[in-house]
Design goal:
By secondary structure, this protein is α+β, with helices and mostly antiparallel strands. It has five helices and three strands.
């Protein structure tokens, strides 16, 4: 059985600013204004990254008056962590069984 990791999600999280946003949102729900202050990114740039995270299902929005708050969807991170854990377990089992493909 092939163990795979969600490569689309890895691409989304591979961007340093998006990873910083995810890390900040792991600690608290924040609005765009807070995220601009914390990251130092321009608002338009930050909004583009938040859109990518939203479309990937990593964050969700919560309207509050004229502000939009963002919060992390932890189950997405847990799922990705589980995929990596499965991959590591497969590698461990392969190493223990000393499995290797013969060269032609």
């Amino acid at each position: 059985m092939m163990t795979s990791v969600d490569t689309d999600l890895i691409r989304v999280l591979a961007d340093p600013l998006r990873l910083q946003i995810v890390t900040l949102l792991a600690h608290e729900t924040l609005c765009t204004t807070h995220l601009v202050e914390e990251t130092g990114a321009k608002q338009t740039n930050l909004s583009n990254h938040l859109k990518v995270l939203r479309e990937a299902g990593v964050v969700e929005t919560e309207p509050c008056g004229r502000f939009t708050y963002y919060k992390l969807r932890p189950e997405v991170i847990v799922q990705l962590a589980g995929q990596f854990s499965d991959l590591a377990e497969t590698a461990r089992a392969t190493a223990e069984a000393n499995l290797k493909r013969s060269c032609p």
